[in-house]
């Protein structure tokens, strides 16, 4: 199966109509029909159920469809990256991180690095939390991680970037926003949003608060859901500082607790590129001076 044939399957699956799919692909209906039959012959099973109403994916083809769609997207992404790279860059350093705010000053580091190495591309890749798979497969050069979760992975090296404390987040007109530092007793009588994929340190703090004072709580699915609920006057939350995006939309009050997050950059121990070392040093210097 070639890339054109993948396009044929994806387009027909989308339109569920041979005529419309052929028009969108700028080929004749007979060509599309022939190609689909040839693919089915090669695979050994039907891809589409034909009827007077059109064509729909068979159960077996539905399994294949998602894979083909991903292959197509990854191929297009690879082509675009290669086009960018071939024009002006001699190397590419990729960095995997959960969200942009985790290394908020990354753009500043890239600017400083490119003054020294204008022909080297820095590519951020957003993985979601606790997703080191692409780094471990060798598809990323740097991986942002927490509290030594990669400590026992062989042939890797951890470089401490910064310590992230826990903050209380409220609306800016909330009475609590006037506090210089918040503590557990300040939350009495409030509604605390918990959950949302909270890391172990934060869950421990949430549990300690719930067990020690009179406070309502409810589960919020994600960090973005939580932030929306704060603006809707549904409650307050505690969150690691690495979520701070400096938009000035919320009040971030340092919270008095022992829990904190040590944030690291993980690299392969056999990656000896001088440019990689320089980029990491730039990041470390930026955070050291904050």
Alpha carbon gyration radius: 25 Å
Structural class of the helix and strand makeup?
alpha/beta
Q: Briefly, what CATH class of the largest domain?
A: Alpha Beta
Q: Please indicate the percent range of residues in DSSP E strands (runs of 2 or more).
A: 15-25%
Distance between the termini: 54 Å
State the order of secondary-structure elements, H for helix, E for strand: HHHEEHEHEHEEEHEHEEEH
Overall structural domain count = 3
Shape: globular
Largest sheet: 9 strands, mixed
CATH homologous superfamily heading of the largest domain: Periplasmic binding protein-like II
Overall pLDDT: 91
CATH topology of the largest domain: D-Maltodextrin-Binding Protein, domain 2
Number of helices: 9
Total count of strands: 11
Q: Which parts are unreliable, with pLDDT below 50 for 5 consecutive residues or more?
A: none
Can you tell me the CATH architecture of the largest domain? 3-Layer(aba) Sandwich
Fraction of residues in helix: 40-55%
Verbal overview:
This protein has three domains: 3-85, Winged helix-like DNA-binding domain superfamily/Winged helix DNA-binding domain (Arc Repressor Mutant, subunit A); 89-162 and 262-288, D-Maltodextrin-Binding Protein, domain 2; 163-261, D-Maltodextrin-Binding Protein, domain 2. Helix content is 41%, strand content 23%. It has helices spanning 3-15, 18-25, 29-43, 59-88, 106-116, 133-136, 200-212, 223-231, 274-288, and strands at 48-51, 54-57, 91-97, 120-126, 142-146, 156-170, 191-194, 216-219, 236-240, 251-254, 260-268. The strands form two sheets. Strands 3, 4, 5, 6, 7, 8, 9, 10 and 11 form a nine-stranded mixed β-sheet that branches. A two-stranded antiparallel ribbon has the order 1-2. Helix 5 links the parallel strand 3 and strand 4. The termini are far apart. 23% of the residues are buried. The mean pLDDT is 91.
């Amino acid at each position: 199966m070639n890339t054109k044939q993948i396009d044929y399957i994806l387009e027909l699956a989308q339109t569920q109509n041979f005529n419309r799919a052929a028009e969108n692909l700028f080929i004749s209906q007979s060509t599309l029909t022939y190609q689909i039959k040839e693919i089915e012959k090669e695979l050994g099973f039907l891809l589409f159920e034909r009827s007077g109403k059109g064509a729909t994916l068979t159960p077996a083809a539905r399994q294949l469809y998602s894979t083909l769609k991903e292959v197509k997207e990854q191929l297009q992404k690879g082509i675009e990256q290669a086009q960018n790279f071939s024009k002006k860059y001699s190397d590419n350093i990729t960095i995997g991180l959960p969200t942009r705010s985790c290394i908020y000053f990354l753009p500043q580091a890239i600017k400083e690095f490119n003054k020294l190495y204008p022909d080297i591309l820095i590519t951020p890749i957003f993985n979601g939390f606790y997703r080191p798979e692409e780094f471990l497969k060798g598809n990323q050069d740097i991986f942002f991680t927490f509290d030594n979760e990669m400590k026992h992975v062989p042939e890797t090296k951890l470089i401490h970037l910064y310590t992230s404390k826990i903050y209380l987040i409220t609306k800016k007109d909330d009475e609590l926003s006037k506090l210089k530092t918040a503590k557990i007793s300040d939350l009495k009588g409030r509604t605390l949003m918990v959950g949302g994929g909270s890391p172990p340190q934060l869950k421990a703090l949430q549990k300690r608060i719930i067990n020690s004072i009179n406070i309502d709580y409810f589960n919020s699915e994600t960090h973005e859901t939580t932030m929306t609920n704060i603006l809707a006057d549904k409650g307050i939350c505690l969150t690691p500082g690495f979520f701070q995006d400096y938009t000035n939309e919320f009040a971030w009050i340092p919270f008095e607790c022992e829990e904190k997050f040590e944030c690291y950059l993980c690299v392969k121990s056999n990656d000896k590129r001088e440019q990689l070392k320089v980029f990491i040093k730039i990041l470390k210097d930026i955070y050291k001076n904050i």
